[in-house]
Design brief:
By secondary structure, the protein is mostly helical. The chain has one domain. Helix content is 30%, strand content 0%. It has 2 helices and no strands. The N terminus is likely disordered. One of its GO terms (molecular function) is GTPase activity. It comes from Trypanosoma cruzi. This is Tcrab27.
């Protein structure tokens, strides 16, 4: 995990403590014609695109998701960090 990713995740965890909504970005990468845009439409808009329409450039979707933390989780910042071992 790069330093940039760690800083971004750290910012998100502090925003949780401050009461603002964190943003999580997910990137879909793959060969053409495999359904990347279709998955985005299905998840974000709840619809299925049966006709193949080539995407030129980028396609994106936005979806608001509410998550409830388990009662045993502390909102302290150390609980939100991720460690990657190589």
């Amino acid at each position: 995990m790069s330093a940039k990713t760690n800083r971004s995740f750290s910012t998100s965890s502090s925003s949780l403590i401050n009461g603002t909504e964190p943003r999580i970005k997910i990137i879909s990468i793959g060969s053409s014609g495999v359904g990347k845009s279709c998955v985005i439409k299905r998840y974000c808009e709840g619809r299925f695109v049966s006709k193949y329409i080539p995407t030129i450039g980028i396609d994106y979707g936005v979806k608001r998701v509410s998550l409830r933390a388990p009662a045993h989780m502390s909102p302290a910042p150390p609980n939100f960090f991720v460690r990657v071992n190589f």
